[in-house]
Amino acid sequence: MNSHEIDYKIKGHDIQFVEIELDPNETVIAEAGAMLYMKEGIDFETKMGDGSEPDKGLFGKLLSAASRKITGESIFITHFTHRGMGKSQVAFAAPYPGTIIPIDLAAMGGRIIVQRDAFLCAALGTKISLHFNQKLGAGFFGGEGFILQKLQGDGKAFIHAGGTVIEHELKGETLRIDTGCVVGFQDGIEFKVQRAGNLKSMIFGGEGLFVATLRGTGKVWLQSMPISKLINQLSPGGGNTKKEDRGGLLNSLLEQ
């Protein structure tokens, strides 16, 4: 299914939203609860599926819903269609402060891989599916990076990032970053979650127990403030772990 052609404007600075302009009978799909406002002529319907495969039966829709549940997203996707005359607009906002990234999927080879909470909205025809990144054990211990989402299509898709977006163009290179800072990358780039050095570095380094390694050729999008870090800093005592507490943790590990 070819994606609908949509026009858009990204507005705002530190807290952005995207306004999608639709012609009659054009549709945009979005995460449940992402809608900010919609103008006259826009109808919306909540569906169990992204609409990229209209002939998919009930069983296929249930499988799609189950995969979205695994990623932690709502099993439903909202479809917004312009039923009136002329042009009309519908706007979507990210659930936390940050930046919205427009992606032309056709220019990205037809698909990209994103973190499970990065997808915001896309033109109808975009397929959203589950993408397992690596072995189950590494996923459980590595946190972010195990369960990802794959966006496929030939139209526009929009993903959001916390804080500032950093875009890298890898040319057969390797990039090591905090696991939570990965927003998305082109399909074909190798992405692994690995242990962050030796035991001493893991306890005292302050960089977490695991790091993500991206290797290959293509675009990578990173975020400066993932929501997990923001929540940690806002929680009581967040970000203020004492050195002696970390030393006690190290001693406990060495005694076992």
Give a verbal description of the structure:
Helix content is 18%, strand content 44%. The chain contains five helices and 17 strands. The chain has helices at 58-70, 136-142, 199-204, 227-234, 243-255; strands spanning 7-11, 17-22, 27-31, 35-38, 42-47, 77-82, 88-93, 98-104, 111-115, 119-123, 127-132, 147-152, 156-162, 165-178, 182-186, 190-195, 210-223.
Short description, anyone?
The protein is of the alpha+beta class and 256 residues long. The chain is built from five helices and 17 strands.
Question: What descriptors fit this protein?
Answer:
single chain, 256 residues, alpha+beta, Double-stranded beta-helix, seven-stranded antiparallel β-sheet, six-stranded antiparallel β-sheet, 18% helix, 44% strand, globular
Topology, element by element:
Elements (H helix, E strand, L loop, with lengths): L6 E5 L5 E6 L4 E5 L3 E4 L3 E6 L10 H13 L6 E6 L5 E6 L4 E7 L6 E5 L3 E5 L3 E6 L3 H7 L4 E6 L3 E7 L2 E14 L3 E5 L3 E6 L3 H6 L5 E14 L3 H8 L8 H13 L1
Antiparallel strand pairs: 1-2, 2-7, 3-6, 3-10, 4-7, 5-6, 8-13, 9-12, 9-15, 10-13, 11-12, 14-17, 15-17, 16-17
Largest sheet: 7 strands, antiparallel
Uncertain spans, ≥5 residues at pLDDT below 50? 135-145, 241-256
Determine the N-to-C terminus distance: 57 Å
Q: Supply Rg.
A: 20 Å
Approximately how much beta-strand content do the residues carry? 35-45%
How many H/I helical runs?
A: 5
The CATH class designation is Alpha Beta
CATH fold node name: Double-stranded beta-helix
Residues in helix, %: 10-25%
The CATH homologous superfamily corresponds to Mitochondrial biogenesis AIM24
Would you tell me the overall average pLDDT? 79
What CATH architecture label applies?
4-Layer Sandwich
Q: Which structural class is indicated by helix and strand composition? A: alpha+beta
What's the number of extended β-strand segments? 17
What is the domain total for the residues?
A: 1
Sketch the topology as an H/E string, one letter per element.
EEEEEHEEEEEEHEEEEEHEHH
